[in-house]
Amino acid sequence: MADAHDVLHEPAWVRRTLIALAVLVMLALVVLPLAMVLAAAFAKGPGVWLAALREPDALAALNLTLFTAAIVIPVNAVFGLFAAWALARFEFRGKQVLLALIDLPFAVSPVVAGLCLVLLFGAQGWFAELLQRHDVRILFARPGIVLATLFITFPFVVRELLPLMQQQGHDEELAARSLGAGAWTMFRRITLPNIKWGLLYGVLLCSARAMGEFGAVSVVSGHIRGLTNTIPLHVEILYNEYNFVASFAVASLLAFLALVTLAAKGALEWRYGADLGARTRH
Amino acid sequence: MAFARGYRRPLPGFGISLGMGMAWLGVVVMLPLAALGVRAAGLGAAGWLRAIGDTRVQAALKLSFGAALVAALLAALAGALVAWVVVRYRFPGRRLLDALVDLPFALPTAVAGIALTAIYSANGWVGRWLEPQGLKIAYAPAGIVIALVFIGLPFAVRTLQPVLETLGRDQEEAAASLGASRTTTLRRVILPELLPAMLTGFSLAFARALGEYGSVIFIAGNLPFKTEIAPLLITIRLEEYDYDGAVAIAALLLAASFACLLAINAIPLMFQHGKRTDG
Predict the structure, then answer these.
(1) CA distance B31 to A151
(2) Which of A58, A187, B246, B269 has its CA 20 to 30 A from that of B81?
(3) pLDDT tens by residue, A233-278
(4) CB of B242 less than 8 A from some CB of A
(5) Assigned superfamily of A45-276
(6) Contact assignment for A120 to B31 by CB distance below 8 Å
(7) What is the set of domains in chain B, with CATH numbers?
């Protein structure tokens, strides 16, 4: 028994070395940058930190970031629900292609996504004339920022719901239908309660990306201070002006947001892990 | 599978859910990508030759592909180490280590970028020790690679972790009972099982690294021909109103993204096939 145990495990010194190496990698690669943000943000004390956050341009950026998230998250959640329902509950031609296309925004460079929107809505774009005639601005204005963020965060909710719904199967929904439940009753009483924690998980990932998106938004925003700057863009502007303390102070806000996201994600996995499906990890 | 075509579907909402899903995909994702595709196709041979013949573009593409390749390899190795330790060993702080793996995903890229730059610049926490040794990381290709490893790490760990968790001990026990040493078991039994997931994680990390912008532009230094990545050159061409130049680089990056997605979808099939023919 003791022998069998030994050949199934690495020697203790190997185990300890590997654990130490893994901890070292995570400390150097992940913990150090987080500590750097917090240290630099509070380098001149909490007063300076607070002042950087209460500055009008920072507040305008915060406002725009929350505005964008308030549109992007519900839209992607609702349409993600529709798409997940079609993909998880029905078989149809071209399903594999549709699945691959949904993953595209994960692989496309944010800058390329931004450029695509410029080609649609820019001065030489497909819709340039139409927009000019109706005096609508999309590029260098809020709609462009919303569209860029929609593109980037598109797959999160579907990708979270799909494996969960596939794993749960459709037995309960079929039972509800055979007992005479209407479509809406079935969705409200069976489907939604079954997937609510998975949905929340997807929304959490979606909102973290939505508020932190930089590359795509940077291309379409035009960087107009107080008007089309999101929080991440404001961090960049302050940094390029060598206003490091203010830049890190605003960045620390995003770092706190990331920590809250991680904590909420961990809590969901720990408390409702079974309801999140086998593939809880993106 | 459950419903043959032609039967009345017992569950409601097929038409509306597929329609809404397709419309949403079409407007948000496919229409913008189509604009790029059409514009790239319209460049013609002369336009492409001009864009690709530009040595600055060549240097940027070479740097982007090279740095992404090195970073994805490093991320796959570091990811394998972290995933192995988190799944197989029990030690204090294990759950915290597991939770921290997702930080690069949750932390906005611009924040990561300025933090890494501050750490590795000449008077930073790490840079002040390395620069006197002649090791320049910030404003050099090494800094780009570090930023990209940071970005790729969660993908490498999270694709490997579920496979490691479901990997039964039976085969290991069988190998051990047949007299295989621990290293032989690792090399001949465990590693082949993990290889598809490691390749998937590598491809995901590579795809992300190739297009990454926010975390890189601060630490890169952005010198043309030296530390200028391809996504940055797209934004520079746009600012110069050289739309064709920007479109050519973007189309190449997009093609590489497609290739990565194809590879990611093909990897499991490849290994399934191998298994079947082996018996």
Answers:
(1) 11
(2) B269
(3) 999 999 999 999 999 999 999 999 999 999 999 899 888 887 786 5
(4) no
(5) MetI-like (1.10.3720.10)
(6) yes
(7) 53-278 (1.10.3720.10)
